[in-house]
Amino acid sequence: MVLNSSWSWLPWDLSHIFHLTIILSFAYVALKAVQLYRKKQYLVKVLSSFPGPPAHWLYGHVKMMKPEEEFLNIAAWTEKYPHCHPLWYGTFLAFLALNHPEYAKAVYSRGDPKALVAYDFLIPWIGRGLLVLNGPKWQQHRKLLTPGFHYNILKPYVTLMAESVKEMLDTWGKLVPKNGTASVEMFEHVSLMTLDTIMKCAFSYQKNAETDRDNSYIQTVFDLSYLFYQRLKTPWHHNDLIYRLSSKGRQFYKACKIAHHHTEKVISERKDSLKNEKELENILKKRHLDFLDILLCAKDENGNPLSDEDIRAEVDTFMFEGHDTTASGISWLFYCMAQNPEHQQRCREEIMELLGQQDEIQWDDLGKMTYSTMCIKESLRLYPPVPLIARELNSPVTFADGRTLPKGFLTALDVYGLHRNPEIWDNPEEFNPLRFSTENSKHRHPYAFLPFAAGPRNCIGQQFAMNEMKVALALTLLHFELFPDPANLPIPMLQVVTRSINGIYLKLKALH
Q: Which residues of the sequence carry a binding annotation for heme (predicted)?
């Protein structure tokens, strides 16, 4: 048989093709093995001057990151290595964990980008929004969204926050018997409240999330947070193809669709309303636009609106960050109040004196909650909502002790370890709000307390979150006394936010 000359380059014997495929496959595997070996050697060399806890040759420190043990190990590592230490997620992914203010300042005072090797795992869920963007596009979006958190916009949100908190308290009132107590799991109720708040404030979405006790979005966010952190701790799932084919990967992408359906519904309803010329005119007349107004009305330097992809990424990001991190902060704040009744009562007395007979809280009241604010900050110290924040160095860094890291290396701000570092905090496990008195704050390192990160990439919504925590604390303490539930003490665990393995159960007693 004579082959056409245009096909003469093909081997006529199929066995040759098979053998060639085998050889190329082996060559590819060998090349990848050499690349990974060199990467491992590079990581080991860079980290050689930074001692840390012994790591398994294959799993790194992952075996020490079991949910019930991880925070305990972080505290122990911080005590033994009070400046920094390596943190290995398997064999080929390593961070330098920073748990000292001077080390945190050296990196987080700069504008280094997020470590996409980790944050990439979030992109199928929240897209390329402000949390994961880098470079000029991040600067553009940050500048665009900052006006959405101007204090003139935050002022009227206090009323909306109070409405959502009161809905939660009404629900609790139905669960707590008169002259008795009931054990209530905080995180579920508080999550619904903070979701309702962010929907009303940032998206002018008036349907009440708290009346939907089966709200699928809350559970979906929990599932996605869990699956994201499990992927980070499972080295072979770092490969996209392997992860997509795994049962956990299929579960993750299915949950992403549910989350996207929720946010797309919010966006489409607002877009439909903007088609009404009168409604559009009313929005444009506002002195200050809400978060979604800003996104939908924004134009780039060429006069083009943001793409649908960019809008959904920012909405997905703020829908998650605006409710889940705050829910963590408020839930652990209530736990700290229950564990420390003398501080709870002092906060209650401050709030009662401030509000008098009124049951309403106003913007001007928030700045006068001095002792309550100290308690909020102390709870954020002990239970930071976001316990790890990763960066990729865009230039080399030299620490105060002369040790260095090269460009491109990954760091992780260990907020939990930083906030419990015994070199920085006396009796770090003790709940002591006076640490945040005006006098004591003067003498504290500016990078010792970083619940909202630091530098140019700090949390854009931190004032919103602090206001919501103040409103929630004030109204809750006016209506309920909080007690610990000894039968259900929480076990903190690290995910995207600080959660509890077994929930955060408190006993509630109505005051009226």
A: 459
Binding-site residue ranges: 459
pLDDT in tens, 123-143: 999 999 999 999 888 998 998
Burial tier of 126 (Cβ tally within 10 Å: 0-12, 13-18, 19+)? buried
Cβ-based neighbours of 368, under 8 Å, separated by 6 or more: 354
pLDDT value for 480:
97
**Does pLDDT of 59 surpass 60?**
yes
Bridge partners of residue 484, in order along the sequence: 506
Q: Are 329 and 465 in contact (CB under 8 A)?
A: yes
Nearest in space to 116 (alpha carbons), one of 136, 90, 134:
134
Amino acid found at 279? E
CATH architecture of 126-386+451-511: Orthogonal Bundle (1.10)
- The Cα–Cα gap between 147 and 236 comes to 42
Model confidence, pTM = 0.91
Residue 70: C-alpha distances to residues 77, 409, 500 (Å): 10, 23, 12
Alpha helices in 388-487 (DSSP H): 415-419, 438-442, 462-479
The chain-wide mean pLDDT, for the chain, equals 90
Binding-site residue numbers for heme are: 459
Q: Facing residues of 301 across strands?
A: none
3-state secondary structure of 411: strand
- Let me know if 505 is exposed, middle or buried by CB neighbors in 10 A (0-12, 13-18, 19+): buried
Interatomic CA distance for residues 132 and 144, integer angstroms: 16
Q: Is 189 exposed, middle or buried (0-12, 13-18, 19+ CB in 10 A)?
A: buried
